[in-house]
């Protein structure tokens, strides 16, 4: 009796071919340049290689420094209310394409990619008792429909098995967009803009989570509110630091 060369039913062969075609059609695309993603990721090899991971930086404000230095001149002269600041990236290509898409265009795929990158960069940092996203004012939240800091903090907390305490901090008054102001204007704009409230035991060590740190005015205002509540240590974990 002659043995069949291929005993796989034709219908199954056609189905496998269809699956391969669909995988090619819907293969992950780079979120930056739309080239084919590298190894199924949302970045191509070139854009992944261009990611501006943070190098040597000030321990208190994360501004880039020469190797060997630990504090910048500004933090030496006027220590900030943050005990430490850690940034996954320096603000530059391609992060400067991805963060605005998350912040202004509800691109949650970009947010997921950036949050995963933060988890990779910050996993070895001193572990806080809780992550607290820097909140939007309710009016801004209603207009935008989502909070980009929370979209970064939620998967970051899951990835690092840390408690997420979005209830500890609220924005008590609406403020003008910080991007329109100079450094002194930014500080005035957010002074007293946050209120911290304790529900249950107060974490001793908190890491504030935000998308971008420029002058640090927003994070400093949030840190002061938490310190007035009695938090012993406040760090900042940010996706990107503007040099």
How does this structure look, described?
Strands 1-6-5-2 form a four-stranded parallel beta sheet, with helices on both faces. Strands 3-4 form a two-stranded antiparallel ribbon. With 243 residues, the protein is an alpha/beta fold. Mean pLDDT is 87; it is low at 1-6 and 21-26. It has helices spanning 10-25, 45-49, 73-77, 95-105, 108-122, 138-144, 148-160, 183-190, 217-229, and strands at 84-90, 130-133, 169-171, 194-196, 205-213, 233-241. The chain is built from nine helices and six strands. The N and C termini lie far apart (77 Å). The chain is globular, with a radius of gyration of 22 Å. Helix 9 links the parallel strand 5 (205-213) and strand 6. It has one domain: Rossmann fold. It is 38% helix and 14% strand.
Sequence-ordered SSE layout with sheet pairings:
Blueprint (H helix, E strand, L loop, with lengths): L9 H16 L19 H5 L23 H5 L6 E7 L4 H11 L2 H15 L7 E4 L4 H7 L3 H13 L8 E3 L11 H8 L3 E3 L8 E9 L3 H13 L3 E9 L2
Helix pairs in contact: 4-5, 5-7
